[in-house]
Every structure is written in C-alpha cells, then in structure tokens.
Amino acid sequence: MKKILLGLFLGLTALSFSAPSFVNVKEIERKNYNIIADIDEVLSYYKIFEDGAVETVTHVYDQNSSAKDINDMFKSEIINENVKSQDFFETKKYYISKYYDSSEEMYIYLITGKNSKVKNGYTSILYVTELNLNKENLGNKANIFFNEAESYLKK
User: Fold this and answer.
1) How far apart, in Å, are the Cα atoms of 78 and each of 26, 28, 75, 100, 117?
2) pLDDT tens digits for 55-67?
3) Nearest Cα to 137, choosing from 87, 82, 71, 72?
4) What three-state secondary structure class fits 67?
5) What does the alpha-carbon distance between residue 68 and residue 34 come to, in Å, rounded to a whole number?
6) Strand locations in the chain (E)
7) Angle, helices 2-12/67-78, rounded to nearest 10 degrees
8) Which keywords has UniProt assigned to this entry (predicted)?
9) What value does the mean pLDDT take over residues 128-143?
C-alpha cells in the first residue's frame, strides 16, 4: 500500500508546482485529508479509514486526454510483479479496475469518472482494502467516493 502511494507521488511530482485552479484545496485541507501531490495540473490526496483501507483521490486537468487515457495511465502505475488485474468493467459513470496485491494481501480498486463537472478535468480514485468487493458494492462505494471528491471541485 505504501509502495502504491509512493509510486503515485513520484509519478505525479514530475510536473510543476501549483494546485489546479478547479479544485478547492482549502476545503480538502479542512476535511483533514493528507495532500501528497499539489502540482500545476494534478492534485492528489488521501485518507486512511479506521479499518486500514486507504482512499487516494487524484484530480487531473489535461486538455489532451480522455477519461480512459487517465484511467490507463494509473493502471500502468499500479501493475507490477505482485499486483495482478482481476477485473475491468464500465458503468455509465465510471471505468473500474480491480487488482489484487499478493505481497500486501490487499485489493486495489481504480475508479475513474467518465464525466466531470470541470471541462478537461478528470477524477480518479484508488481504493486499497482487504475487502473483496463485488460489482454492486464497488459501484456503491464509487458513488460515495465520487460524491465527496466532486464536492471539492469548483464549477
């Protein structure tokens, strides 16, 4: 889990410094999230739940990419020798990928929103947990996570 967070942080810090203008950073900080990447076109923050699960939210502004491109970019950061893809599916709102990390014995869910409140803005959520969620439960979690994450977007 720490390796995933570190990998995301290192991958995202190759960009310049300054939070995206379409995200309300002060509200995120007020809600006690930990910001791990605050750069020109990317903002990434996380929280750890009482059960040890971790939610990492990343807002990306990119005029030259689609939601699918953003999802694929994060996929390439997740997969390694211990992390294997278990499932991929789409809903009307999300691209959802499910992975299992055999070294950490954790499930990793990558959820990328297809449509954003912000033009050329994309939100991806990485949820790491011991729980093996089915599609229905994962869809419900995705809705909860995205409702909160999108509440920090400026229109």
Assistant:
1) 29, 24, 5, 10, 26
2) 999 988 888 889 9
3) 87
4) helix
5) 26
6) 34-39, 42-48, 54-61, 83-90, 94-101, 106-113, 121-129
7) 130
8) Signal
9) 95
With a CB cutoff of 8 Å and minimum separation 6, the contacts of 104 are: 1, 82
CA atoms of 84 and 77, how far apart (whole Å): 12
Distance CA 50, CA 93 (A): 28
- Separation of alpha carbons 121 and 148, rounded Å: 16
Question: What is residue 25's predicted lDDT score, i.e. its pLDDT?
Answer: 86
Residue 93 has pLDDT above 90, yes or no: yes
Rounded CA gap, 115 and 55, in Å?
A: 20
- With beta carbons less than 8 A apart as the criterion, state whether 34 and 9 touch: no
Show the tokens assigned to 114.
């297809």
Q: Can you give the pTM of this predicted structure?
A: 0.84
Residue range 41-57, pLDDT digits in tens: 888 999 999 999 999 99
Q: Are 98 and 109 in contact (CB under 8 A)?
A: yes
The C-alpha atoms of residue 27 and residue 151 are separated, in whole angstroms, by 9
